[in-house]
Amino acid sequence: MPGPLSLPTLCHFLLLWPFAIFHKALGDTAPHPGPHYLLPPIHEVIHSRRGATATLPCVLGAPPPSYKVRWSKVEPGELRETLILITNGLQARGYGPLGGRARMRRGHRLDASLVIEGVRLEDEGRYRCELINGIEDESVALTLRLEGVVFPYQPSRGRYQFNYYEAKQACEEQDGRLATYAQLYQAWTEGLDWCNAGWLLEGSVRYPVLTARAPCGGPGRPGIRSYGPRDRKRDRYDAFCFTSMTAGHVFFVPGRLTLSEAHAACRRRGATVAKVGHLYAAWKFSGLDQCDGGWLADGSVRFPITSPRPRCGGLPDPGVRSFGFPRAQQAAFGTYCYSE
Fold first, then answer.
1. Strand partners, 176
2. How many Å apart are CA 180 and CA 74, to the nearest integer?
3. Separation between Cα atoms, residue 328 and residue 340, nearest integer Å
4. Are 240 and 199 in contact (CB under 8 A)?
5. Is 236:162 a contact under the CB 8 Å cutoff?
6. Considering Cα of 35, then 38, then 39, then 45, what sign does the dihedral take?
7. Domains defined for the chain, CATH in brackets
8. What is the pLDDT of residues 203-260, one digit of tens each?
9. Could you count the other beta carbons within 10 Å of the beta carbon of residue 297?
10. Other C-beta atoms within 10 Å of 140: how many?
11. 101-149: per-residue pLDDT in tens?
């Protein structure tokens, strides 16, 4: 039968006991009984551009006796994950539309990193690399973030015409996709100030305000204002679209053209009339600066300014200016063409 605890031993136990409880209250977890096979990523956010090749790192510290690695994408605003690829270390099988452009890097025998070729706008988001070894699964999460630009969009009918699904389609028609909250927030930090509320990819409705003012939600702190939960089918707002670098280039054709003449002018040059997303991408990534209004494919007239000056829109900040949607028969503008 063990003897009674000595006084020094008892004091040592009493000192450690509240210390252990304190750490448990802070959320410290007990040591894992078995090995952790996946190494934590050095960088959890991977930056890329449309059309590039992106690598999402996932590396094993040691190989389990038998395992599979499952890559999936966490869809924003939806409580589901989309399967991309499954590998057993020797063979891999892709799933879904992204699986056809995804492959394993295979830099070494412990490398389970995912390579995505020809990155698209819809590839941005959160990814999960999950190790399935039949005992205790583990995973690491990474975020693929595209460099791009957010632009507000409304149709020729005026403001607040889109439900969620129409806003999503409108952005895609203008070479973009609905922006995420993170993309809108970054655009706000870079100077986006807009009073009209618009749909975001997650299904929320918000608008960014740099200078609080009466017509823009009233006084208060600058930031991203929110309309709260909205009905995706019934409620109608504008859209915040996101686009990234394009494979082609945008150029201006001067003249006094109608919209149909603008289409013909671009065709003669082996191009098409640029979409709104094309113009924003050219302004953002190529520094396009043109103090002339030009037709775009949706029937709007806009022009990009990187160096603000008095007779070029009159605003102090760079941006893409808009003349709205003139009559298609009005012969008063040049056109912006897009060629790949």
1. none
2. 13
3. 26
4. yes
5. yes
6. negative
7. 38-146 (2.60.40.10), 148-243 (3.10.100.10), 246-339 (3.10.100.10)
8. 999 999 998 888 887 788 899 999 988 999 999 999 999 999 999 999 999 999 999 9
9. 23
10. 19
11. 999 999 998 999 999 999 999 999 999 999 998 767 899 999 999 999 9
pTM for this prediction: 0.83
The alpha carbon torsion through 156, 157, 163, 167 (nearest 10 deg) reads 0
The answer for residues whose C-beta is within 8 angstroms of residue 159's C-beta and 6 or more apart is: 196, 238
Residues 273 and 297 sit within 8 Å (Cβ to Cβ): yes
The label of the residue with tokens 């706000």 reads 188
Closest-CA residue to 260 (of 228, 233, 299): 299
SS3 for the chain is CCCCCCHHHHHHHHHHHHHHHHHHHCCCCCCCCCCCCECCCCCCEEEECCCCCEEECCEECCCCCCCEEEEEEECCCCCCEEEEEEECCCCEEECHHHHCCEEECCCCCCECCEEECCCCHHHCEEEEEEEECCCCCEEEEEEEEECEEEEEECCCCCCCCECHHHHHHHHHHCCCEECCHHHHHHHHHCCCCCCCCEECCCCCEEEEECCCCHHHCCCCCCEEEECCCCCCCCCCEEEEEEEECCCCEEEEEEEEECHHHHHHHHHHCCCEECCHHHHHHHHHHHCCCCCCCEECCCCCEEEEECCCCCCCCCCCCCEEEECCCCCCCCCCEEEEEEEC
State whether the Cα torsion 133-134-138-144 is positive or negative.
positive
